[in-house]
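Memo to structure team: turn this sequence into structure tokens by end of day. - J.P.
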Amino acid sequence: MSEQFTVTMLGGFEVYRDGQLVELPPSCRRLIACAALKRRAVPRSWLCRTLWPDTRSDRAAARLHTTLWRLRPMGAEGLLAMTPRSVAIAPDVSVDWYDAVDLIGQLLRRSDDGDTNRDLAAELLPLLRAGALLDGWIDDWTAHARDTYRVLRVEALEAIVRARKTEETNGAHARVAVNDPPALVVK
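Reply from structure team:
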């Protein structure tokens, strides 16, 4: 039976294996978060420059190697898909931020068409309420993704509010029409 990993990046950062919290050292947490933010395979050299910018390249490569090795004794190596040149979040890992961004995209496309799906909004709201992306993190490499998600989150909440106001207005008009039908003109 394969293990199911879940990475939560909204409202903080946690990793779960089969529903159980996995305690990771800070270097492993940073590596997983950095790889997750890219949503694709990234060169190991890029990870080294990003995670250890003030370190010589050979030392940064050694730190990356050590960080990857630290995942093994914890049974967490399944979080990553690795090649000799790149690292990515494994495709079967569930990431709440991915779910939120994908649902926000669907919601905004539908609201542009004037059709906001209640089920979609209901699925998205818990993710929006979970909090900011990597809340509390101050690493420079998180800033762009955090800012982008903040904007998307506001746009999604605004779209949901607009849709609910439209539903309420339409509902109010319907109630008025039912309770106060126009006078029939009989000739």
